[in-house]
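User: My instructor asked us to take a sequence, write out its structure as tokens, and then describe one feature of it. I'm not sure where to start. Here is the sequence I was given:
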Amino acid sequence: MSSESEIPTRSHSDSRRFAVRLAVFYGTLFGLVGTHLPFFPVWLKAVGIDASWIGIIIAVPAVTRFTTLPFVTGLAEQRQTLRGAIIATAFLTAIGFSIVGLFQVAVAVFAAYVFTACVWTPMVPLTDGYALKGVARYGLNYGPLRLWGSAAFIAGALVCGLLVDVIAPQHLIWVIAAMATVGAIAGLGLRPIDMAGATPAGSAGATGLLRQPGFLAIIVASALIQGSHAAYYAFASITWQATGFGGLTIAGLWVLGVIAEIVVFALSPRFTVSPVLLVIIGASSAIVRWLVTAQEPSVGVLVIAQLMHGLTYGATLLGTMGLLMRNVPSHVAARAQGYLAACSGIVASSASMLSGAIYAQHGQGVYYVMAAMGAAGGLVIVLARHRVDGTRALVDQPQSAGSGG
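Assistant: Let's start with the prediction itself. The structure tokens for your sequence are:
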């Protein structure tokens, strides 16, 4: 017969198994992004796809984020199969990239990649929704779980970068497909989450999210602040190369930003500030960072600006997750992530197109617009702070707000 003293131990063991398996899956999920983002275009060029088709193909995931993605996350919660949806999309993604690798004709590659993107892009919001349920169920912190994704992104990019010098670029797609397969296998280890007393997925909360001003404020603020990175993602390396920085310096600046993000995630359980304040910190940091970047700073100043990525991206993400924990019922957590991803996709793709036009005319002046986007995001959350910084909807016991739950 078990004694009461054995219950916490068993609960702690379940919590640890959940955390380890989720961390492993986050690692494979973002490890795939780390291999795909820098090297998929290299493969496309290597198999003879021309530049115009490359631009069209690369744009596919951004489109699926605000078209098919919300429907996939919504369907997963309607069927109450969040874990099953993650596993299914992971295996379909692996199959999709394998099919993409079989073709070298632009139209065929495009068609296969459309299918792949439709099943791949929902994986992050599905996994974040699953993670927030686990945070609520086991009393965990979101940040230390999510940091393994950032670490794996660096590892995936570095490993694939080394392989470029070893294998022909025409074979890079198989590295990407292999990473997707590893992720699918890791997904089988995710544990089912029993949310006692959770509201059925068909309740009014699912259809009412987009009618809640507080929820809309959260996703719009996050999309604006994160979208302010658009010019940085598109033109930072080009600008730094034109300035005369070597490849190693450019790579080092990128890695610094991700390392700062990892540090923020790792330290997040110790944060005592509210999620609203974290988002405001992220917005304020974005204003400063982009105003500094617009001045064509020296490499020493750029190091400081890159370290601010831990706040502009990391603090904003943690604050957003914390606010979703407070304002979104657990039975629509994945759907909320889908709406967030869709809103972010619309803002980021629009900001990317806008930044391209502005950069062509004004160069580094594009960062003034990015600073304005960060300020707009901060203003949205400041105006909505009393509405969104209320009682929690996902958790029964308070967790560290700074941890995203």
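For the description part of your assignment, you could build on this observation: The radius of gyration is 21 Å. Try explaining in your own words what that tells you about the chain.
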